[in-house]
């Protein structure tokens, strides 16, 4: 395997999070939550949108390559999509205290696992890694809507 392929897999796995023997998606979401206060939340809103766009495109391209390298569609080791989904859920918030981050984590995992409409359907709307990224983006949007509602009610 080429060095570039090792780098692609490390990116897709968010380092070691995707290598967890159980629940790599949950570990990927946890890694995304740990990184958000330093790499995402301090950015201005427009910069966050640009970051999410870049993560979507680069993640989709990398996930497409990872599918070929790992020999399966949407391999569990690929958790860059969890980072996209959680960060999308946090998009409207300039900061996130422990309660907000915990609520974002739980809500995103619920929507990512349960896959309500149109999350499950979206997995097949785009080819390869783009479909991998899209379903988590929609799960992140569901989580964002719920977080916004909880925030308006002053619950987070």
Question: What is this structure, in a nutshell?
Answer:
It is built from 7 helices and no strands. It has 156 residues and is mainly alpha-helical.
Tell me the fraction of residues in β-strands, as a range.
under 5%
Proportion of helical residues = 55-70%
Count of helix runs: 7
Poorly predicted ranges: none
Q: Total strand count, please?
A: 0
Order of helices and strands: HHHHHHH
What is the molecular shape?
Answer: globular
Tally of structural domains:
1
The biggest sheet, with number of strands, parallel, antiparallel or mixed sense and barrel status, is: none
Backbone CA Rg: 15 Å
Q: How far is it from the N-terminal to the C-terminal residue, by CA?
A: 46 Å
**Structural class given helices, strands, pairing?**
mainly alpha
> Mean pLDDT across all residues, rounded?
93
